Amino acid sequence: MSKASPNALHPGAKFEGYYSKFLLPSGAHLILIVCTIPKPRGSSTAVHRVTITYVPRGKDDVWQANLKPVELILSTRPVANETYNWSIESPDGNIKTRGYTTGMSYFINQDGIRFNASSRDRVPWSSNVESPEGSLGSLPLPLHWHVNSLASKAHYHLQLPPESNLDPADHQGKAIVHEEKNWANSFPSAHTWIQAYDEGKSSICLAGGQTLGTTAFLVGYRNKEHALQLDFRPPFATSAIGISPFMSCDLDFENRCIRLEFTNTKYKLAIQAKAPSDSFFGLDAPMEGGFLPNWMGQSTKGTVKVEVYQNSRIFPFRQWTHMCSDEFVNAGMEFGGLYYGLRGSDSWSG
């Protein structure tokens, strides 16, 4: 992974945020977010946040901790005798996130939390492009989104405070980790996100929302059996004032349901995602002035149904023939900003 990789650090960005979602042996999820705002608006002091969320497989309460390190050091140069390409570390060494060519490493030892993990066998976005953005990644967009790995293998050790109700099966072992990052100015005013993976078979991952006066999405669906690597991005995944010849979007937070449909010259992708209303937990969002509390709600208990159709005629004519179906369970879903009916304060916090 070179310095030019989307997963590397981006000097000059108003925030850097890394998101890693681990599927643990019990079926629980551990979500780690490492985020830094180097120069918040109206302040000369950087603001950092490390959020750890443990989501049990069943109906148990979600446990979450927000660590606020006074300082995080961002480095794009390897330390002598080290092989990593970039790092985010606290001066005392109790928080470390590092990026390697084939994976990432994580270390936390603070406030009764001890987590040590390394990922490998990275599953990239596709064989054609490195990032969901494709050529859009070079544009000065208000927010960039990169998926470093759809599902890496990881080895880990984990200790959490007693109140977390950590399942004994989750203290150590092997996990599957989905790795993403965001950088640029701030999170959008409204966004949504879906992520699911069926090991060795298929995956769906998408993000989108309101940006630059439009509603736009970045979408990737993979199906090994049918040799499909379907990507949808603007202009085929964009609408203006609710109008688009290629996309339809129905975001229903009240019923915790997302319905999306995307078409291009060859394929149509129909997606429906739904999660129990009591399965969502809040997350803070980085903005230019700091973090907005409870700006987004996420669930790891979604069900996502996907239908794929193929155009049997020559574009611009269309005749859709059903090609395949997919269903994912324990999927990730998120409503953010104006799409999130339970969003918290609009006041920034450190």
Provide an overview of this structure.
With 350 residues, this protein is an all-beta fold. 0% of the residues lie in helices and 55% in strands. It is built from no helices and 22 strands. The protein has strands at residues 15-23, 29-37, 47-55, 63-67, 73-75, 86-89, 95-99, 104-110, 113-120, 143-159, 172-184, 190-198, 202-211, 214-223, 228-232, 238-239, 247-252, 257-263, 267-274, 281-287, 290-311, 320-337. An 11-stranded antiparallel beta sheet has the order 4-3-2-1-11-10-9-8-7-6-5, with no helix packed on it. Strands 12, 13, 14, 15, 16, 17, 18, 19, 20, 21 and 22 form an 11-stranded antiparallel beta sheet that branches. It starts with 14 loop residues before the first strand and ends in a 13-residue tail after the last strand.
